[in-house]
């Protein structure tokens, strides 16, 4: 875990935490939040601190972010598992600004010791966590609440010809999506027809 000091209001020193998941290249970011009786403030992104935190964990610095995306989903909406192949591969920095989502990354790098493994993290407006998902991973999320707003930055532009997708319930991955008995999973026709992990193109 890397902690990066930064100064917010009234020069109070607080820390941004970078925490490696079970897939060490996938990193949880817990931003520093300064609050008082007026509300709160946080720095949602600082490139220098982000890069320095990754380096302290022994991880590579990504390419610059070039595109921001914003989606709104009703409870039970499942988007994924998506990725783009080289030369348009994307790293993603994702967060939820309203509602809550279960966010999943899957390692699809053939030469990786964690190839074929998945990790899931809950992101919400309350925990304010972000998740860094580098190139070489498939990504998806399940909206746990209605009106869930999901924001993410990408290190490459969208390129339709480079799209890849793995079906959300691929048996090889055995992802435990936290859908309760009363939650209806909503998946697009395109995502429902995505490849199984076995046949999907890999890195």
UniProtKB/TrEMBL annotation:
Enzymatic reactions: dTDP-4-dehydro-6-deoxy-alpha-D-glucose = dTDP-4-dehydro-beta-L-rhamnose
Swiss-Prot/TrEMBL site (Participates in a stacking interaction with the thymidine ring of dTDP-4-oxo-6-deoxyglucose) positions: 158
Protein name according to UniProt: dTDP-4-dehydrorhamnose 3,5-epimerase
Family: Belongs to the dTDP-4-dehydrorhamnose 3,5-epimerase family.
Pathway in which this enzyme or protein is active: Carbohydrate biosynthesis; dTDP-L-rhamnose biosynthesis
Organism: Paracandidimonas soli
Function: Catalyzes the epimerization of the C3' and C5'positions of dTDP-6-deoxy-D-xylo-4-hexulose, forming dTDP-6-deoxy-L-lyxo-4-hexulose.
Catalytic site positions: 82, 152
Top enzyme class: isomerase
Record-listed E.C. numbers: 5.1.3.13
């Amino acid at each position: 875990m890397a902690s990066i000091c930064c100064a917010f209001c009234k020069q109070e020193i607080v820390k941004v935490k970078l925490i490696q998941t079970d897939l060490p290249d996938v990193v949880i970011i817990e931003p520093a939040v300064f609050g008082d009786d007026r509300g709160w403030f946080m720095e949602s992104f600082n490139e220098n601190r982000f890069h320095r935190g990754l380096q302290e964990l022994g991880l590579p610095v990504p390419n610059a972010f070039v595109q921001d995306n914003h989606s709104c989903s009703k409870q039970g909406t499942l988007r994924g598992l998506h990725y783009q192949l080289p030369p348009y591969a994307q790293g993603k920095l994702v967060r939820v600004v309203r509602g809550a989502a279960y966010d999943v990354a899957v390692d699809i790098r053939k030469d990786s010791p964690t190839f074929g493994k998945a990790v899931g993290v809950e992101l919400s407006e309350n925990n304010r966590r972000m998740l860094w998902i580098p190139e070489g991973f498939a990504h998806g999320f399940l909206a746990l609440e209605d009106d869930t707003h999901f924001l993410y930055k990408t290190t490459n532009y969208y390129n339709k010809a480079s799209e890849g997708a793995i079906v959300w319930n691929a048996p090889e991955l055995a992802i435990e999506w936290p859908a309760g008995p009363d939650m209806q999973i909503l998946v697009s026709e395109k995502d429902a027809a995505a490849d199984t992990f076995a046949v999907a193109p890999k890195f």
